[in-house]
Records
---
Amino acid sequence: MNITEFLKVFEDVAIFEDKIILKRNLIETVIYLRDNFGYNVLKEITAVENDDTSVELNYHLYSSTDDEDLVLSINVSNETESLSHIFDSASADENEIYDMFGIHFIGNEDLKRLYMAEGWVGHPLRKEYQDDDERLDWND
């Protein structure tokens, strides 16, 4: 990928080792990378909560024509745009992140819990989630 060409279009990004860190324009960036650089596969979306309670989402893209991997990273608080209309594979990862971290993906028409019961309160991978919560008594 020609980073110089990419940076001319998206100036508000940082490049750190093997990932591009975005502040905004997730959808536009993904579409641009797909259409101009051949990143046509979304391998997975991973999430980790930062100390400030924002969640870092990492989008692992792959170019099948160039056999190259690329990671896009963006910090979100409670919601972000869904990529499910761009990559079908995004929906499952977005559902898991919603279930475990509580991030709402705007535009995902099938957003639901995957592991926790529908009535479950909270999101187990958030730092404020207490593992001595009485709701976990069923696990004894």
---
Amino acid sequence: MKNIQVIDRANNCTYIIFAATGEEFESIFLNGTDVEFVEDFVERAGDETASQITGELWKRPVRKDAVQGIHGTLFYQLIQKKQYYPTKKESEMVPLGADRTP
């Protein structure tokens, strides 16, 4: 199982972590990425498949004190943050204020 931290735009968001099967994880995070935006995932997978996969995730929350690594971050309704993750890899995040011109 791989752990996915879900971050949404709610002011009271608790950044819950969910356990994903390898297949679920690979469906959400493509080609070695570890950041995804739910809007992109739904567009790519389709409403039905995305709902099915996330519905299974919601059944498997992981207590933070039991987590052994976070393997991916899934943003909900935070598409404005996409500019900071052009490659969808956290290790290649563009910091605030950084020059993003080639």
